Amino acid sequence: MTDPAVGTAVDVEGLTAEDLAQAGLRLGVEGGVATVTLNRPERRNAQTPRTWQTLARIGATLPEDVRVVVLRGEGPSFSAGIDLRTFTPEGIPGEEPVLRPGAGPDELERAIAGYQEGFTWLRRPDIVSIAVVHGHAIGAGFQLALACDLRIVADDVKFCMKEPALGLVPDLTGTKPLVDIVGLPRAIELCLTVRTVLADEARELGIAQLVVPGEELDAAVQDLVAALLKVDAGAAVATKRLLQQAPGNTLEEQIAVERREQVGRILGTRSA
Q1: 230-255, pLDDT tens digit by residue?
Q2: Could you give the CA distance from residue 103 to residue 89 in angstroms, rounded to a whole number?
Q3: Which of 174, 120, 138 has the alpha carbon at shortest distance from 38?
Q4: Once rounded to an integer, what is the mean pLDDT over residues 87-104?
């Protein structure tokens, strides 16, 4: 997969093209759309701690006029998951080892919290995030897709939550969206059997909002982005913020939030 019109390279707040390359990422911004590309095709876009740390920096430094974030993978797969060298004593060349000698549980938990920030910003109400998924989306790759608001997938997609097979748990913010989307029993079944979910089932379960042939993937993304950008920016932010609260609210609580958001839109008292 290649990026259609990824825009100009970004160098803001100290985040340079070299930083991105070292993390296996590319970033382009054009016309209110940021395209983030996992760019380590020789390793099927395996992710490392530096990938997640740099994703967090991207979220913190996006231009304010970005409304849509498109996340995609270079080469034959979206992402084959975590680079397993992460958990070896020698670690990944050029990166600090996760399993640093003498590291205790508090230090490791702080490190994981930092990695999770590379995923959480994709849920911000001021942007709509779209995962464009083809080929393998395994483990961390599946969780990165789940961190996005929407998933457009090619018909060759293969989702799998691989972590339990490696003696680990999914810890990159993927468990809540998976349960929210497919329900608790199905999430348990998918994670504990570590089976692969193909395109048709992903659509049936609601993991994928749209499934298209691989050659139509770029056009489908462009159509969706164009439709999103047509909507009033302030109303889009307020509506996403409103919808995100719905699962945790009672009906009475949610309709009260609806009233407050609408008053803000009508009177212009809420900043979008």
Answers
A1: 999 999 999 999 999 999 999 999 99
A2: 12
A3: 138
A4: 78
